[in-house]
Amino acid sequence: MAPNTNPAAPVPELGEAADRPEGPVAAAILAAGVGAFALGVLTTLAEASEPIKEFLNLYDPVGPLSGKTTGAVIIWLVAWAVLHLIYRNKPVESRLALTVSLVLIGLGVIGTFPVFFQAFAPAE
After folding, report:
1. 30-60 residue pLDDT tens
2. Residue 79 to residues 4, 18, 27, 90, 118: CA-CA distances in angstroms?
3. In this structure, are residues 104 and 38 in contact, taking their beta carbons and an 8 Å threshold?
4. Strand, coil or helix: what is 106?
5. Which stretches are transmembrane (predicted)?
6. What does the alpha-carbon distance between residue 114 and residue 118 come to, in Å, rounded to a whole number?
7. What's the pTM value of the predicted model, to 2 decimals?
8. Where exactly are the structural domains of the chain?
9. Which residues contact 92 (CB under 8 A, 6 or more apart)?
């Protein structure tokens, strides 16, 4: 990248960030939250429904975990692509994106705890 040769252009001070849209950063942060939440939802759904559990069984030695993780990764990548397209040139508040993402990650983690997802298991 060529150095800034325009003497009239403002140069950021040490510690200051260049004025760039934060949309792509916010999109990545939000997509991470969406992916984590998707894993929690898929884990809970697999426990609650036998047909979903069978559908998520992509590889017998691994069981439905193979579908849960594959599904979560696909949802994360799609969410990242869509959010990037939406926010790529927009000045988005990254603190809000981080807060929303942390809430989604927290909910996703709760959804993967056996005490939580086993509560949705059908009565035997």
Report:
1. 999 999 999 999 999 999 999 999 999 999 9
2. 36, 27, 8, 17, 28
3. no
4. helix
5. 25-45, 65-87, 96-121
6. 6
7. 0.82
8. 23-120
9. 21, 22, 23, 25, 26, 27
